[in-house]
Amino acid sequence: MATITTPAPTDDARLGTLTQRQRDVRGGLFRLALSISVIVSIVILATLIYEMASQGRPVLTTRLGDFLTSGFKTNPELAGVWQGIKGTLMLSVIVALVAFPIGVGAAVYLEEYAADSRFARIVNINIRNLAGVPSIVYGLLGLAIFVQALGTDLGDGGGLTGGRTVITGGLTLAVLVLPIVIITTQEALRAVPAGLREGALALGATRWETIRTTVFPAAAPGILTGTVLALARSAGEAAPLLVIGASTSVFLTGDQSLLEQVTDGRFTALPMTIYSWARLPASRGWHELVGAASVILVALVVVMNGAAIMLRNRFERRW
Amino acid sequence: MTPLEAAPVALRSLTMSDRKRRREALMRGVFLATAWVSILITLLIIVSIAREAWSFLTQVEMGALTEKGWFPRRGLFDIRTPLVGTLIVSGIAMVVATPLGLGAAVYLSEYAKPRVRKTIKPVLELLAGIPSVVIGFFAISFITPELLARVRSDVAFFNLAAAGIGVGILTLPLVASVAEDAMRAVPHSLREAAYGLGSRKMTVAARVVFPAAISGVVASLILGLSRAIGETMVVAIAAGATGGSLFSLDILAPGQTMTAAMAALGVGTDQVKGADAAFQSLYFLGALLFVMTFALNVAGDRFVRRIRERY
Lengths: 319, 311
Fold this sequence. Notes:
Chain A is mainly α. Chain A is built from 13 helices and no strands. About 2% of the residues of chain B have low confidence. Chains A and B meet through helix 2, helix 4, helix 5, helix 6 and helix 7 of A and helix 2, helix 3, helix 4, helix 5 and helix 6 of B.
């Protein structure tokens, strides 16, 4: 065995080992590389927004009102997004009506009634898996169940959903965002301190009375935030609608009653409008329309997300 | 002040009335039913996809699954074409998303001051919220003409590379957020111990925190890959090949992915009705996609849970 002898260090040498003499070049480069990856991400977002805005600028500046209120036209100078916006609004209403009660109900059961039970564990795992299923697969579900099994046949109408209607689209999107509603509601319920529940129960409230009078009001901001986030997500989805056969172009006259519009086979949505225009030739000016419609869609989604975040910050209580 | 007098307590006043009891049972039943809906959805997805996919497999000769391209309307179902297209696109996406996502994650978790973090986080969240049709349009209006065409003049208008980069942009925020969560979950005592031994900032970040959070990092990549494989609209817009495609490995040429092939079939479902093999190939692709993403998600979830259990 070799023995290692070290010379007794001088005071200067001791001090030298403790201070960092030369600049930390590798550390600086590392930090630079990290900063670049952040900057690139920001540049991507900025380019994306700039590109959309500059493509859509001619449309947005010269005929914004006309663009918002007119429907599909074969002439790009006259076409607008009204039908897409209307479709997205109708879909959002259906999504909210279906996903909100079912999602909140499921979360209440999992957190308030069956926390830590085997059933709850299985359902929780299941929901996490559903959240990762690609959106186009939900389109297959919608096609097989809502279009074919519940609406009599391909696009022919009848049945419960009437085939390829806005109801089918709304139900499919509701199923798609259900995991988001459940997971965010569960988080909101979990954030309500047990002491509040115990207080209500000690005063003689039943479990349902406790939930209704104490847990729901305390968790309401969180639950609403989750629902708005879910709606924002569904407003941007096109893939499932594509599969269940939403129209890429609708030439409705616009003077039908609301009921006719809901049960009529043809419907579209803002992302579907963008998809169909993006496939038309850029040279004829369709891509200006895509840019303008993208600005509107992104603005819609950003406003919804922003509202959700503000809601959360405003009403967030620190217990 | 008069002292409070205790009212006589009868057993009746402590037990629930029948009406209340019924209402409690009813509400419990309603909530239980809504919890079952998610299970029902999973079962419906599996059953409906498996049934049609199976009837596709029994209808189509096995030879047609390795025929020279993916042309469902002509009875050519070469499964390698969309499968390899999907692997190419998600591979390119991960090449884009991995360095940017992990770099951003390390920066946000280890380097950024709270104020900087507060401004960068929303940027990533905003990027995550951009609808995929918009990114698809960005791919054909910017990535191909402004980026790819400058490097290679022979790039096609629709191509797999632009689609892959677009999908990468969509995947980036997911990778960054899962990886950052994992690194922030690493306890401070580990960092302090490393500093105490004289480590530099870079050593702490790269040799202590990163390895400690490695299962979360792996999870972020697995979940990102799963997201990239399932992404539809970017590919449907930017990769071309709507009707069908020959087997191709050229990333600068149009190609077919599983999701884009499904979207193309979906657009045409007015033509392909009912029990037709082309219609059912939609479900066959869906089944493959479901199995692939499901396996990745389960694996990713396991890694996420590992880091949660450790710290």
